[in-house]
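re: that complex we talked abt at group meeting.

here r the seqs, copy pasted straight from the sheet so there may be weird spacing, ignore it
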Amino acid sequence: MRIKLILAYDGTRYGGYQSQANTLAVQDVLEKAIEDLFHEKIRTMGASRTDTGVHAEGNVACFDVETRIAPAKIAFALNARLPEDIRVLASSEVSPDFHPRFQRTVKTYEYHIINRTFPDPLTRNFEFHYHYALDAAKMDAAARFILGEHDFASFAASGYSSKTTVRTIYEARVFREGDRIIFRVRGNGFLYNMVRILAGTLIEIGAGKYPPEKMEEILLAKNRQAAGPTAVARGLILKQIEYPDA
Amino acid sequence: MRIKLILAYDGTRYGGYQSQANTLAVQDVLEKAIEDLFHEKIRTMGASRTDTGVHAEGNVACFDVETRIAPAKIAFALNARLPEDIRVLASSEVSPDFHPRFQRTVKTYEYHIINRTFPDPLTRNFEFHYHYALDAAKMDAAARFILGEHDFASFAASGYSSKTTVRTIYEARVFREGDRIIFRVRGNGFLYNMVRILAGTLIEIGAGKYPPEKMEEILLAKNRQAAGPTAVARGLILKQIEYPDA
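got the structure back, here u go
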């Protein structure tokens, strides 16, 4: 049967989600726990690669296994074998043709900023520290320009190759919670580094470098040079992946 | 001149705030940064010792120094010399007779609980994970019994010696924020382990082991055996220390 896992992890000490040479990936650690539990090497399929230092509260991975363990209990058995910085939040059986990446998905990300003189040591690994004043209302106004279907070529890491750079954004807003500013975005797909480049651009707008309307101009430029810098990885959290067809 | 520091730290890797043999304390690291900055060994006076693994967002330390650095700039200079898990949030000059511990103080603590099936890897070091259902409203009703002046002998670690076990509590409440339950308490002093024993007792009440009124009975018993267990250190955060007379 095919098992779907909802994964949360602190990405600080990992070289991203997906296995690759010369770095410890979340996938490596997960597959070791799976091997430990089922006594066989099982390859998993992940929904989102997430970069080095990026966190997740709702990444998704799947694998096939024949077992008598009830699907919902697999989460408990895996958590007993995983380090504290990775948790399986839920496990369930899905259709054998379910694929976490090739299926239609809606993803939600948050980018967290702490906007005060000094960082907070308790949350330092999960937010970007920005010392100077940021106007969250202006950032929010700017974020509205990306709502709907657009060509996001300006917000893709250069060298990125994909069939299309058109994506649809269903939710994009910026709000302040005390010293924190949160950029929340939900869409049908994101180009490589897209959320971090959006965040880096919104920070420039919040700092007053450009007016909110600059966002539309950047979109129309379809050129990475037009947008702001890529915001640091530690502020990014993959919150949720929805599967509308599953 | 006497300098007062407001300190925030992630207590995870420290053996508490105060220097002692065979462990790395926050004070050790702070005094090393101070020595680095002023080129002399300077002894600091801390307001609250905080136990191993306990965190702070508002501990206070003082020291005397002759320097031409503006008092408010000392925070910046120390942060450049401190590890990421300790931050000086503010530095200021205070009266030479100000002492962070012997002065009258009002302290605020929070105890954080994550109440769901699995812990959250992003906040795992800053909250206690409790799997079973907790009734925050019952915990809140129980917390109200400690408001005002009481003898808290039941909530002091055994072996604790102090002139008096009477303390005054100005605020004591429990509230839920999604999966989190927060116990917030503000008072003119706390006995050793008092907040953690209060938290451990409130968790038993929230789990339905006792009704909220049990809290009054425990207070009147003046016996550590009457109260619940000491909740784990990682959930405790020293939020603020006020000096009404300073």
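couple things i noticed - The mean pLDDT of chain A is 96. The beta strands of chain A are 2-9, 45-46, 55-64, 86-94, 106-114, 128-129, 148-151, 166-177, 180-187, 236-242.
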